[in-house]
Amino acid sequence: QQPVQSPQAVILREGEDAVINCSSSKALYSVHWYRQKHGEAPVFLMILLKGGEQKGHDKISASFNEKKQQSSLYLTASQLSYSGTYFCGTDLISSGSARQLTFGSGTQLTVLP
Amino acid sequence: DVKVTQSSRYLVKRTGEKVFLECVQDMDHENMFWYRQDPGLGLRLIYFSYDVKMKEKGDIPEGYSVSREKKERFSLILESASTNQTSMYLCASSLYGTIEISGANVLTFGAGSRLTVL
After folding, report:
1. Cα–Cα distances in angstroms (integers) from residue B11 to residues B14, B73, B117, in the given order
2. Are the CB atoms for B29 and B42 separated by under 8 Å?
3. Were both Cys, which of A1, A24, A26, B81 would link to B117 (CB 3.0–4.6 Å)?
4. Using one digit for the tens of pLDDT, what is the confidence trace for A23-41?
5. Distance from CA of B79 to the nearest CA of A (A)
C-alpha cells in the first residue's frame, strides 16, 4: 500500500523553509527520499532506518518516527536547485527477503527567486 | 558515468502491438525493478527481479511480463499494448536486498522510457 505524502505541492521563495511528510499504515523498516527534476531520473537523497535516526545532507534533513510510521523531510533556506518532485519510498518490515520500495505520489516543490 | 541505461527514451506504438522495454545496468547489482510513473500516482512497482531468471510481481503486474536472462539486463514486455499503458516507465537497480546492510537497497534509476500507445 502506497505511503501518503503531503502536501501535494508547495511553492516557496528562495531562502524559505519547507517540510514534506510521508506516512504509512504499515510497520516500516526504512524510509528513502528521492528527488526528481523535470525530465530527469529520480535521485537518491537519503535513507532513514528503523530507530528514529535523523539524517542530514547539506540543508536538507529528515526524521523517522517509527512509532507513528512517519517520516518528514526538512528543506532549510531553500535554493532554486531544490525545485523538483520529492518522493518517499517505504520499505516494509513484512517484505522479508524480497526488499522493495513502495513510493508515495510525490510532492512537487517549486522555489522561486 | 551512466549506470542504468534504458534503450528507448520515447516510443509510439499501436494498440495490440508487442512492446519491449530494455534496461541495462553496469554496477553488478543483484536487484532490478520496473516502475510505472503517472501524474498524481507516483511510482508504482510493476515487477522486480532479485536474481537471474527470478522475478516477482509488484503492485500492478497485469498486462506486463519481464525477462532477466543476464544479470545486467532486465526487460519489460507488454504482450499486447493498450492505451491505458501509455506512461513513463522507469527501470532501477539496487545492490541487493539484504536488510542488515544499510543502503543496500538504495535505488539507482534510469532516465525513463515514455511510451505512447495509440
Report:
1. 10, 19, 8
2. no
3. B81
4. 999 888 889 999 999 989 9
5. 25
